Amino acid sequence: MRNLDLGLLRTFVAIAEQESFVKAAQRVSRTQSAVTQQMQRLEAQVQAKLFQRAGRGKALTEQGVALLDYARQILAVHDEAVRSLAATESKEPITIGAPPDVADTILPALLSRFSKLLPGVRINVHVARGILLMDALKRGEIELTVSMLDRPGYERIVLRNSPAAWLCAADYVYDRTQPLPLIISEPPSMFREMALEHLNRAGVPWRIVHTSSTLPGVRAALRGGLGVTVRTIEMLSPEFKVLGDREGLPRLPDVTFYLYLRDFSTTGEVARQLFRAVAGSR
Questions:
Q1: pLDDT per position in the chain (282 positions), as tens?
Q2: In Å, how far from its chain's centre is CA 44?
């Protein structure tokens, strides 16, 4: 007997309710390509075609409509079980860490997800640089943290993978005859290291025109048209644009967002339940 993945079912329901792969991707905090891959995996699990072309979009097949009802029931029972168990636990507040890049991009959707999985739990958010948050997690000052740093040895869940991109102001014009003007964070910074490593590897000349200790400082320099920076695609907005192959800039790797949990033996039950609930809803 095949087991159905709850995370795949949750994305499937989101697509059906949003009637759009793009909107569903935003709802489940994933990229559109990741959502497409999830549905391919779900179709393999149920051994049936779930979607069919309908104009420029896609609609549920007969098998998809049948699965939708079952998926809603399965998820409802799962979520109710999590809520019921959590209701018996202490509602002591838990603290989750988030780097600035996460705090105003993927964190709002994640907090909404937390509140649905464990309603009534008070969550405090501590915003700081990723390396400081991992130190705080190790010292026991926070229970959970979202991080883009790869730190084996901790309990962790992959939340999503996002493309990194060269960003600049929407009206910025890059002069390829001059060294690339870089706007970067103070070290240690994974985006600083990523930018310099890939530019050096590709032989692209560069110069640092602005260094900031904060994300708002980086954004301000971008808006002012000082140069180019590296961030994940979540930071893209109408005031910014992406540079790439056409401008002779090297391709950048995806960035993985993790949810880390402090050591099980020292973490409160509510934080452990929240972590398990997120893992079960993937």
A1: 577 888 899 899 888 888 888 888 877 767 888 889 999 999 999 999 999 887 777 889 999 898 988 888 888 887 777 666 655 554 678 899 999 888 878 888 888 888 877 777 888 999 998 989 999 999 989 999 999 998 888 889 888 889 999 999 999 999 999 999 999 999 989 999 999 999 999 999 999 999 998 889 999 999 999 999 999 998 998 999 999 999 999 999 999 999 999 876 677 878 887 887 777 665
A2: 25
Q: Which of 188, 155, 138 is nearest to 258 (CA)?
A: 155
Q: Please, are residues 18 and 10 in contact by the beta-carbon 8 Å criterion? A: no
Statement: the pTM of the whole predicted model exceeds 0.85: no
- For the domain covering 6-87, report its CATH number: 1.10.10.10
Distance CA 9, CA 114 (A): 18
Give the DSSP H or E segment for 220. Answer: helix 215-223
Distance between CA atoms of residues 127 and 121, nearest Å: 19
Pick the CATH number of 162-255 from 3.20.20.30, 2.60.40.420, 3.40.50.300, 3.40.190.10: 3.40.190.10
Residues forming CATH 3.40.190.10 domain(s) in the chain: 162-255
Q: Is 193 exposed, middle or buried (0-12, 13-18, 19+ CB in 10 A)?
A: middle
Q: Give the integer Cα–Cα distance in Å for 240 and 83.
A: 41
Torsion of CA 183, 150, 109, 195, to 10 degrees: 20
Beta strand 206-212 with 180-185 is parallel
Q: HSE, CB side, 13 Å, CA atoms: give it for residue 83.
A: 13
